């Protein structure tokens, strides 16, 4: 078995991080039940109850990933397969709102060599080890999904690390495997598809800062309660500052509505400013700080690419 590392900087290949979209790009075939909180005919912007306060502690989970090198592996039969050497990390920011303190509480980092070749021994590049991670095929999409799945698993592993009674857990991205965790919200800031019919989408785009839509049941490959919320910020496009939050479909509708109210008094506190973050206000301040910390933990991409090339040679 032989390994060849592509000399091109992997940053010039396919990006694993989707760009931000100003609004949905296509309609969705997802199943929608809009009557969870209000009948569809009565949908309107919802304000949080007067006097409702955010929880004392908010935990925010996020992960980052990076391709360190694109590789080609020639097996013992002479067949060449594509792959990627990738690094990924996940962590938790603990925000104690009563004290006005936020700190990175937990971080974990892993690496892997993703390829359809099996068995595959680990690659040792200097002091860094890339264990073999098998994917079904070597297509770019399959390699990307392989890295994504392992990063999500790492996020799941850290999600319960700092939990205490009464806190609120916010996961950057879909809730999915963490839907069983109590008081947990998925936080989606990129809108690729339009889930709601036009009449209800009009309620989304009419929201003011701090307002949300009624809760609805959203079904794709899995089911969850969801709602849209507009974060405070300067006026812009109809979808400017709009995020989608979601919680487990195993909750009662009243519990889902209670979490939606809680999100409306909590998420706006973390909205970012445009002069600090080009993805403002959706890229929450604790998320941006955690991403910087995690990316630093991944190490210097150029040095790792050089070490991988030497290991292959």
Question: Which helices and strands occur, and which strands form pairs?
Answer:
Elements: E1 2-5, E2 26-27, E3 31-33, E4 57-74, E5 80-96, E6 101-115, E7 123-125, E8 128-130, E9 132-134, H1 140-159, E10 168-172, E11 184-188, E12 193-194, H2 198-205, E13 216-219, E14 223-230, E15 242-248, H3 253-266, H4 285-297, H5 301-312
Parallel strand pairs: 2-12, 4-10, 6-9, 10-11
Antiparallel strand pairs: 1-4, 3-13, 4-5, 5-6, 7-8, 11-15, 13-14, 14-15
Write up what this structure looks like.
This protein has helices at 140-159, 198-205, 253-266, 285-297, 301-312, and strands at residues 2-5, 26-27, 31-33, 57-74, 80-96, 101-115, 123-125, 128-130, 132-134, 168-172, 184-188, 193-194, 216-219, 223-230, 242-248. The protein is of the alpha/beta class and 313 residues long. Strands 1, 3, 4, 5, 6, 9, 10, 11, 13, 14 and 15 form an eleven-stranded mixed β-sheet that branches. Strands 2-12 form a two-stranded parallel ribbon. Strands 7-8 form a two-stranded antiparallel sheet. A hairpin with a 5-residue loop joins strand 4 (57-74) and strand 5 (80-96). The longest helix has 20 residues, at 140-159. It is elongated.
What is the gist of this entry?
The chain is of the alpha/beta class.
* Structural class designation: alpha/beta
Distance between the termini: 13 Å
Shape: elongated
Uncertain segments are: 13-21
Total beta strands: 15
Q: Profile the largest sheet.
A: 11 strands, mixed
Summarize the amount of helix as a percent range: 10-25%
Number of helical segments with 4 or more residues: 5
β-strand amount: 25-35%
Rg, Å, rounded: 21 Å
Average pLDDT level: 91
SSE string, helix = H, strand = E? EEEEEEEEEHEEEHEEEHHH
